[in-house]
User: Fold Secreted protein from Streptomyces mordarskii.
Amino acid sequence: MTDTLQDLIASAAALIVGLAAGWAVHSAFGRRKRAREQRFFGLPDGSECVLVTHRDSTSAHWSIPRHDALALLGLASVVENCGAHTEVAPHDTGLQGFGARTEFCVGDPTAHRRLAAHMTNLLPGVTVHPGDDSGTDRGTFTIAGTHYRPEPGTVEYVLLARLTAGDDSRPVFLTAGQRPVTHRAAVRHLVRNRARLARKYGAQGSFCLLLKVVNSQAYGPDLVELVADVTKPATTSAGPRAAAKAAAKDD
Assistant:
C-alpha cells in the first residue's frame, strides 16, 4: 500500500469520524433545545393541551376570526414540535380548571368568557373596560392606574402572560388583546422569543407583558413593541387606592 493511499484512507476515516461527531453534537443540541421548549410550554412528549378561542361575532355560524385562526396555527406548530397533542375548544364550553394540562387562551377579554375568568382570577390588577353603549373605550386596559386605550389601526395593546397555579401544574398562556390582529402579534412574539423568555423567567416562572402593535392597518401584526413587564402590578389586586386613582383619571 502506497503512502498516498494510506493518506487517503486516513483522511477519509478522519472525515467520517468528524461527521459522526458533528452529527452527535447537533443531535444532542437539538434534544436539549426541544427539552427546554417542552419545559417552558409544559408540553412533554405525548401530553395534552387545549387552545381556547371565541366565535367571530360578525358571523352567523361558529367561526374564528382570521387573525385568531392564524395565531392558533402558530401555536399548533409549537405543540407539534414538542410532541404533544392539542384540542381546540370554544370559550363557552365547560372546561376543567387550569393546571392539569397546558392551556392557550386567545381572544378579546370583553367577549371571551374563559379568558375573562382567567384574568379576574390570575391578573386581578388588570381592568378591561367594556365600553359605553357606543363602544367608546371598549377594550381599554387599566394597569396600576394607567389607561391603555386602543386607536384602531394605529396603536393597539395586547397582554401576553404565562401563569401557573403551582410548581407541579401546567401553565396557562393568555393572549388578551384589543383586536384579533394583536392576538396574532402576541403569539408571534411568544414563539419567536420563547428561548429568551424561558431564560429570563425560568421553566416554571410566571410573567405578564404589555405589548403594543403599531400601525396594524399598514403592517398587520409585524410591528410589535414591548411597553412594559407588568407582572407585578397585573398579578396584584389593584386595591381601593389604585381604583380611586383610575376613577379620578377617568373624570
